[in-house]
Design brief:
With about 350 residues, the protein is α+β, with helices and mostly antiparallel strands. It is about 40% helix and about 15% strand.
Length: about 350
Amino acid sequence: MENLQDRFCWYEPEEDGSDVSPKERYQRMVDWAGQARGTNPDAFDAVTAWLLEGGRWNDEEMAANRRLLMEGIIGRFLEQTRRLRVELNALVPSGLVNMAVFDTLDRFEEELTGATRADELKEAVGKVFGDFSSIKNRETRELFAGGITGNAGTDTVRIYGYINFLKDCDAGVQWTLFMPDVVERQQDGFRMQRFEYRKLPAMRFIGMEKDFSRDAAGLEELQRTLDAMEGYRSGFDYDVILLHHYGRGVDVEACHGLWGRFLAAGAPVPEGYAFVDFVPESDGKSGMPYLSQFAYAEFAGDMDAIHRQEGFDCDAMYDVTRNNILAQNVMIPYPAKYWTAEVYLQGFRKGSSAYLFSVER
């Protein structure tokens, strides 16, 4: 597949001596990042599909395909990463650069050299970098190639491999470049007036998986039951709709919404209610207990604008909160420990104006 490297959107620097202002130069990188985000996910999936055919390659094909991957793709990404770092460093004095981008470049370069941080992949990556023909081994090939995660990068795969990590690292660079502008533009008719990361002690969410928006009597009973648990307060004592997928991908598990509150760890669960436990540190497994680490975003402005869905992946609060996390290069533990929540600061009857988004720091 000789044109595989041409499927990527590569950054091409300005010619030396071109009369371009720092603002224009940075905007050019931001624009490139947005374009690459629409192109590169599918290109990485094409690389994965191509590598998974490696068991059929003869010696001549193996040599040509090694050059294609190691020089035409990985080598070119290394060159691009180093070029971006140089140009961005030169622009730092202008105050335009989102400094989070440098950590993403460092991480991407580290992975591109074969020094992966994924312990489960180190052996396979080392084999392929040392002897490309080891791609003929099925286990090595699958660990190196990974699975096809789709344009959004969220599709469930059996094996999350090295190429998947490169795909994520590439996305991280682009998000830190263009997401700050996206977050600003998305705040139309409202503002995010508070944003912070929190890590709380262990706690238990208690509620019911039911839509109470048209059940006033049922909602009143829910609140009365939770009010009676005064002795089990968690310190985050708001009405909340918790949204999660049991640690599975959104493509294979529907969203489950529980109306309730965060209470103290080990709080008794009333009959007919459900619970979800949260802990400060990961147990390394998918699903519950989830992490009691999250981004907290608080919004003010027109309530219809805050909850607008048109033009957003989910709605305005969700998108702005998530995109701000991505702009800051903070990890979202998707899908294993992924959850979000709408927070009703003045109670369920007043409408939600804050959002929680799971992170791992």
